[in-house]
Amino acid sequence: MILTRFRFRDRVRSPAFRPWFEELHADPARSSRMRRGARLLDVLVPAGPYFPDFLTPYEGLLGLDSGLAALLRTPTRRLAAELRLLARHRPLPGWVRPIAQGNGPTLQEMGAALRDYYEAAVAPFRELAGSAIAADRACRARGLLRGGVEGLFAGFAPLMSWTPPVLETEYVVDRDLVLGGRGLRLVPSYFCQRTPMTLADPELPPVLVYPIEQRHRWRPAAERRADLDALMGANRSAVLHALDHSATTTQLARMLRISPTAASRHATVLREAGLIDTRRDGTAVLHTLTPLGTALLEGTTGGAQPSAR
């Protein structure tokens, strides 16, 4: 959500985002609902080297409700400290002061404005953005399965470079993030562009929000299905899509109008690739998507949640 304001400020707008802009501007009611949140974000999230971490709580990875609830629980001391730091980079209007003081009604109004903004600017495009994110995750998962950590980070080139134990990337400011034994959470973002982003406070859980590959944005489902067909063959792709809901070998054969022998053969290949699980269910054999299979399938049909940023 936060990064959508950066896309509004882009001097040269990427063609990938034009359908999003056009739909927003075509609906006056949607633009009106965005207005309070846009005003808030344009002040608190300026184009510059810093914006407050409290606007992007870690809990936001669980969804909008969790993120807003965490934002409203932000300790007053932290609100004041982060807004003082923001004030070093730009003058702040008087209406920011009650936020810095942790004023309950003001924070509730802020939460309502951000919710309205999200519902107008992001929610209508959640399925489309989600499918693009899922496609990117599927590509990253394949790199990890094939080459481990080295294979994963090799797929990020030239955005990032991995020289163990250091991960280097272009960033808006020169800084080091020392994990100190903590894990780094990689978060794909539909609205992030050019360079990854992380939290300003190094003591917060390490997160690196990165832009998904451009090729995954705004591609029709038919094109993504064609890619999967080309990758594994039309019949095998059809079997994977049919297992969006678990099915037995016999059910697969009936749904796809192929022989049980062919259905079993395709299922075996998918199982060996780690895309499905197979288990006995009485006298039948039941096939179910694995998380990797689900990620690959969602990359062609939608369903993943976009980054809260």
TrEMBL record:
Claim: Heme is one of the keywords in the record: no
Keywords: DNA-binding, Transcription, Transcription regulation
Organismal lineage: Bacteria, Bacillati, Actinomycetota, Actinomycetes, Streptosporangiales
Boundaries of every HTH arsR-type domain copy: 226-301
Matching InterPro entries: ArsR-like_HTH, HTH_ArsR_DNA-bd_dom, HTH_MarR-typ, Metal_resp_trans_reg, WH-like_DNA-bd_sf, WH_DNA-bd_sf
Protein name per its UniProtKB record: Winged helix-turn-helix domain-containing protein
UniProt xrefs under Gene3D superfamilies: Winged helix-like DNA-binding domain superfamily/Winged helix DNA-binding domain
CDD domains: HTH_ARSR (cd00090)
Domain of life: Bacteria
Stored SMART domains: HTH_ARSR
